[in-house]
Design goal:
about 15% strand; two-stranded antiparallel ribbon; L-fuculose-1-phosphate Aldolase; alpha+beta; about 50% helix
């Protein structure tokens, strides 16, 4: 079958090469890397002999975003080091299938639906998919999405890193024909919003869900300030300033952060809730 051929001949060799380098930077021996990747130690040595850019470049040839490649491989490496074998297997399976589908569907568009189907499923990701489907089908949602698009993140258990947080590798975007969801849900799928939820949960473990909306004071005014703790932040000089501010704000245990953005950052409103039901209730109020 075309997907298996693509996975075996193109995707896996390059993902293994990137992962070998990622695990090596974490101080793992070639023997330990071989055991994690289920390959021989001589093959690990061979993979490390070529620079990581070699493997990234091989996948970039197929129009796969390098940031997604590198970020997801870092997440896989984190899962491997944490010895969460089940999550490592499921996440690597999903990522490999996702990349293989992109490559296959560039030439065979009619395969797209079949390409993304898989047998291994994570119950938390299935919960995420159900919630995502309900949220994106809410009437009028497009009116409150930011221009850069939104993401939905979910930490089913108290997260220790971004690898414990489910998010889309793409975004929820508005188009002329309606809302479109791009990418697939994976652990570590989101970068920006997952990192922000991680910071929030360090001070408020009850928060499990994060969503970003457009920057609009009239929207926030619809929320009961006695019920929801709303914090205003920004503008920021740069991205480092943004994260420093968020770490300070997280200690205040906000439900909503209304951020003015800054250099390279679009103004955005962030919402954090204890579950998907609370998020849906807030969105209903805003809509």
């Amino acid at each position: 079958m075309i997907i298996e051929d693509i996975a075996t001949e193109i995707v896996l060799p390059n993902i293994r090469g990137i992962l070998a380098h990622e695990l090596r930077t974490r101080g793992l021996s070639q023997h330990r890397i071989a055991k994690i990747l289920n390959i021989t130690q001589p093959l690990v040595h061979k993979l490390l002999a070529k620079p990581v850019e070699h493997y990234v470049g091989n996948l970039e040839k197929y129009s796969i975003d390098r940031e997604i490649i590198l970020h997801q491989c870092r997440i896989l490496a984190d899962l491997a080091v944490s010895e969460n074998f089940a999550r490592f297997v499921i996440t690597s399976h999903g990522f490999t299938s996702y990349i293989s589908a992109i490559i296959a569907c560039k030439e065979f568009e009619k395969l797209r639906e079949e390409c993304v189907k898989g047998l291994l499923k994570d119950p938390y990701i299935e919960v995420y998919k159900t919630a995502l489907s309900k949220i994106v089908s809410m009437p009028g949602l497009a009116k409150i999405l930011p221009e850069v698009g939104s993401n939905l993140v979910y930490a089913p258990e108290p997260p220790n890193s971004e690898a414990d947080i489910i998010g889309l590798t793409g975004r929820i975007v508005k188009t002329l024909t309606g809302i479109v969801v791009t990418g697939e849900p994976f652990y570590g799928g989101s970068r920006h919003l997952a990192r922000l939820l991680l910071i929030i949960t360090l001070h408020n473990p009850s928060k499990k869900v994060g969503f970003n909306l457009k920057y609009d004071h009239s929207l926030v005014s619809r929320l009961d300030h006695k019920t929801y703790h709303i914090v205003h932040t920004g503008p920021h000089i740069d991205l480092n300033g943004f994260w420093k501010t968020m770490e300070e704000v997280a200690a205040k245990k906000p439900d909503v952060i209304v951020d003015k953005g800054g250099t390279g950052l679009e103004p955005v409103t962030y919402v954090f809730t204890k579950d998907f039901y609370q998020l849906e209730s807030i969105l209903e109020l805003l809509l």
